[in-house]
Amino acid sequence: MRALLLCVILHNLDLLLYLAPSAALAVVIAILARLHPVFFLFTLAGTICHELAHLIAGLAVGARPVAISIIPRRVAAAGGRVQWRLGSVSLTRLRWYNAAPAALAPLALIVLPFIAAWWRTRGGDWHFAPVDILIAFLLAPQFLSFWPSGADWRIAARSWPYPIIMIAAGAAVWHWHCRGASCFTL
Questions:
Q1: How many Å apart are CA 148 and CA 87, to the nearest integer?
Q2: Residue 162 pLDDT more than 90?
Q3: 0.85 cut: is pTM over it?
Q4: What are the domain boundaries of the chain?
């Protein structure tokens, strides 16, 4: 397993090196955004993508989105604390079958940095250009916004049959693929 991981890393070293500044910038943005709300401006690209992911998935699965907001708002949290809600999408037809796809849609955002890195590094002979600074500032928020919020996970829990369906489908595919052969040998 370790050899496979090393092989994947070495094969994609260009992508990982290209994304390193964006990942480091994401850490800096996360720290600064916790210190003062003015730094939410640097998370705007991620917030827009996060909320658009909910909106598009909601449309695709019939969850009927009716409103979208990307304006940060202060909301009261447990224990008298104040938190910031960076954005939201209102869905009016959430059911057991569409709650998880609509709520967990931002998970798909993690592919955006990798697509951009592939685009910038394809051909093998690449170097950082001034445009890569702008791209790093656009990609960094994607690392911060792809993970669904606590509210997203609670909404996704309405789709409780999904894990059972996915496990059953995975077991069926594994059984069909193996057909008595040992699937544990490489």
A1: 12
A2: no
A3: no
A4: 2-160
